[in-house]
Automatic annotation (TrEMBL), chains A, B:
Residues 144-218 form the HTH crp-type domain. PROSITE patterns: CNMP_BINDING_3 (PS50042), HTH_CRP_2 (PS51063). PANTHER family: CRP FAMILY TRANSCRIPTIONAL REGULATORY PROTEIN (PTHR24567), HTH-TYPE TRANSCRIPTIONAL REGULATOR ARCR (PTHR24567:SF74). This is CRP/FNR family transcriptional regulator. CDD domains: CAP_ED, HTH_CRP. Keywords: Activator, DNA-binding, Transcription, Transcription regulation. It comes from Anoxybacteroides voinovskiense. GO terms for molecular function: DNA binding; DNA-binding transcription factor activity. It comes from the Bacteria. Gene3D superfamilies: Jelly Rolls, Winged helix-like DNA-binding domain superfamily/Winged helix DNA-binding domain. Pfam families: cNMP_binding, HTH_Crp_2. The keyword Transcription regulation applies.
Length: 237, 237
DNA sequence: TGTTAGATGTGATACATATCACACACGGTT
DNA sequence: AACCGTGTGTGATATGTATCACATCTAACA
């Protein structure tokens, strides 16, 4: 029986659920540029990413894109369609990098989730944390202005996708275009470009091969008056 | 008598959970202007509101306030502290109107939730819907600009707190100051004031005794290119 | 090697929004 | 009635941000 709350580590999270998914109905290849699903489509399936990268985003009517997360191996997508009575995907799942996903039927997963307390616990824990992350993230995006939104996004990217280098810098291990960043923080490509260049000038970060390395994370944190909330909360996702 | 738009789900949602909460540890009076809890405080308890109104918000370091929801009788607050290993409240619960809350221990509730599949189901359903609501709401706040943010907020307020009048108008049954609205949509009191006055000029809405009545909801929807997502999603909360 | 498509960089400009500094309105005191 | 405190209304101005229109770079590839 689940009593004590386990340490929150990406690696350990959702282990039982992932195990279940691995025994999935079937495997599906995904190709860059295609959509695994799009918002509005009826959702019958969830996916466990085995390899490749998928960007989850939501469009507004006038073509602007709000990017929520970038998922890679080990992550589950389509999860928010569980237990809803309007079973449509809310996000677009665009493939950024070829790979494979394990496919599982939503009905089956809902059944299993309710039958197995361990699964239940893991899923509720994940949902709670998801909601908590979301609150802080959007407060930042809305209240800090566009520059603050970018800085906040970069900080979260460090926590979500960052690799610490020997010199203490943090490599955000994702190929990100200016436009991608703009979609994450609700601004324009041009604005992102100018802000990134300013940060480059100051030596706060550098960019090689489309990947950003943050040299002075503290500078960014100071600028947004970061309250150093726990790393499991201060994330892109 | 008027038909509350929100009746459809709010009343039915969470029934078993609410029943559980009603058999709570004890009852606590709440007084206007005080905080039931504040962000950062260790969370041992959840609350079911029996009467009164509570505003849930989050502050940024520089004093700006992001308002998430206004809760009244029948709603549960503090729920996102369940199943996390960093058991701190993430929001401030400010009492807007005197009342009473039922108090329940978090530990006990977690236990009960896992033991009773019906409760489990209700809670997961609520969490999923919460996450879905949040995604659409913040996309709007971030991508639509401040005017769009206000319009979107007004539309959601209609769905969450609206009462349909005989002439088809919708009364948002909450006393809202300009500053409150500003906190909901991430702008300033002055901007809200100007935008509301413009809408008054056009006859889109009117204000009496601090409560807003929307006469032409479709105008607002058109302006934000509303995609008419389901009412259980397009809400303040 | 030249061509191309996609990405980045940048000035000029327009527009949106915040900020500041008050005046005004209103309901509840004393 | 005069006096608060709190909320609203509004002009002037500053700042932030998007938009447009290109130039430039880069990697892929024919």
């Amino acid at each position: 029986m689940m009593t004590a709350l386990q340490a929150f580590e990406e690696k350990k999270r959702f282990v039982h659920l992932k195990e279940l998914l691995r025994s999935a109905n079937h495997i599906q290849k995904i190709k860059k540029g295609t959509f695994l699903f799009q918002e509005g489509m009826v959702a019958n399936e969830l996916y466990l990413i085995l390899s490749g990268k998928i960007q989850m985003s939501k469009m507004s009517q006038d073509g602007k894109e709000m990017c929520f997360r970038i998922c890679s191996a080990g992550e589950i997508i389509g999860e928010l369609t569980l237990f809803t009575n309007d079973p449509k995907y809310l996000l677009n799942a665009k493939v950024m990098e070829d790979g494979e996903v394990a496919v599982i039927k939503k009905d089956y997963l809902e059944e299993q989730l309710l039958l197995n307390p361990t699964l239940t616990f893991e899923y509720m824990q994940w949902l709670s944390n998801h909601a908590r992350r979301t609150q802080t993230k959007f407060r930042d995006l809305i209240l800090l202005g566009k520059k603050g939104a970018l800085y906040s996004t970069l900080i979260r990217m460090c926590n979500s996708y960052g690799i610490r280098l020997k010199d203490g810098s943090i490599l955000i291990d994702l190929p990100l275009k200016n436009q991608d960043l703009a979609n994450f923080c609700g601004t324009t490509r041009e604005s992102v470009n100018r802000m990134l260049n300013a940060l480059k000038q100051e030596g706060i970060l550098s960019i090689h091969k489309g990947k950003i390395t943050i040299h002075d994370l503290d500078y960014l944190k100071r600028e947004v008056q970061c309250e150093n909330c726990p790393v499991e909360i201060c994330r892109i996702e």
